[in-house]
Write a structure and sequence with these properties.
About 30% of the residues lie in helices and about 30% in strands. The chain is globular and about 60 Å long. With about 350 residues, the chain is of the alpha+beta class. It has one domain: Kinesin, CATH 3.40.850.10. It contains eleven helices and 19 strands.
């Protein structure tokens, strides 16, 4: 607590798709072990290091255990503000890593082996709360940022834009956002699937289910330590004089960076792509400045986009953050893959004070 802590950055390399294999794309990304990955292609030969690298054969469980996600859940229960976000090119496997297969619903659940970081974290959170025997109150909120508008994915009715405010005590926050209490795995997974189905997606040349918005699901964890031996005559409210803890566990599924030339986007899709790329550029700019030593930092422009405003605490404040960089190994995606790897490498130098 209070010590400088580096952002933990892990890399996931998805398999070549059937379309890429049929087209004859070459695999240009190779895992070297010990958190190192090499990009080998014409005029490009570079090595990058991360906290962990998960190649095409890595299971969803291996990513959960090897990324440090379990520890992040435990820290959130202990009262820390914890964030995990997946970023990378469109179609690189971000949503699959966080959620698992897209074709899942309350009536058609995914195979347990294919569940992503979110469902596995929910299971871990509920198991931890039961084993600790502490009084935990759990609730969740879910929003998307679409064309620089913040929309609630859990509130009934058509999504409407919500205002983003700032206060000295809370920092940036979304006004009138719905928060729903839950106490079981079924309830929180139902909220996740309900919100995800309302999220804006479209098909283009690189991805049949391209996310057109950034989505943030936040689990709020409130706890109170209860002493084993309350004072004689004291009521329940006096059982534990220890202060309550309030932690958060936020999952951020960033829309993928994309080149309009590659995706074939036009009209509304092109407008969405430009909005996505502008907010990702603002995020990259903030990360580049945060990666400098504290003495050399200039003003961090969090206000350049609503995404960076909402992630300000996670990136440069008092939170603990895990970044999952997702890339394609295909030679056709080389430019975007290198961009993601450089982006992730800069992020490794960012520090916060939890």
């Amino acid at each position: 607590e209070g010590r400088e802590t580096r952002l933990r950055v892990v890399l996931r390399v998805r398999p070549l798709t059937c379309a890429e294999t049929r087209r004859g794309d070459q695999q240009v990304v190779h895992s070297l072990g010990d958190g190192a990955v090499q990009v080998s292609a014409a005029r490009h030969d570079a090595t990058f290091g991360f906290s962990a690298v998960f190649d095409a054969g890595a299971s969803q469980e291996a990513v959960f255990e090897g990324s440090g996600m379990r520890q992040l859940v435990e820290l959130a229960i202990d009262g820390f503000s914890c964030t995990v976000f997946a970023f990378g090119q469109t179609g690189s496997g971000k949503t699959y890593t966080l959620m698992g297969p897209l074709a899942q619903s309350d009536t058609q659940p995914a195979s347990p082996a294919l569940l992503g970081l979110m469902q596995r974290s929910f299971t871990c959170l509920l198991e931890q709360s039961r084993s600790r025997g502490s009084d935990l109150a759990l609730s969740a909120s879910y929003l998307e940022i679409y064309n620089e508008q913040i929309r609630d994915l859990l509130s009934p009715g058509p999504p409407c834009a919500l205002p983003l405010r700032w206060s000295k005590t809370r920092g940036f926050y979304v006004e009138n956002q719905l928060s729903v209490e839950f106490d079981s795995l079924e309830a929180i997974v139902s909220l996740l699937l309900q919100g995800s189905q309302r999220r804006r997606t479209s098909a283009h040349a690189l991805n049949r289910h391209s996310s057109r918005s950034h989505a943030l699901l936040t689990v709020h964890i409130r706890s109170r330590a209860v002493s084993a031996h309350p004072a004689p005559g004291a009521g329940w409210g006096a059982q534990g004089s220890a202060p309550g803890k309030q932690g958060t566990l936020c999952f951020v599924d960033l829309a993928g960076s994309e080149r309009v030339k590659e995706t074939g986007s036009s009209g509304e899709l092109s407008v969405e792509a430009n909005s996505i790329n502008r907010s990702l550029l603002a995020l990259g700019h903030c990360i580049s400045l945060l990666a400098k030593s504290r003495g050399k930092r200039t003003h961090i422009p969090y206000r350049d986009s609503k995404l960076t405003r909402l992630l300000a605490r996670s990136l440069g404040g008092s939170g603990i953050t895990l970044m999952v960089a997702c890339i394609s190994p295909s030679s056709r995606c080389l430019s975007e893959t290198l961009s993601t790897l450089h982006y992730a490498s800069r992020a490794r130098r960012v520090t916060t004070r939890p």
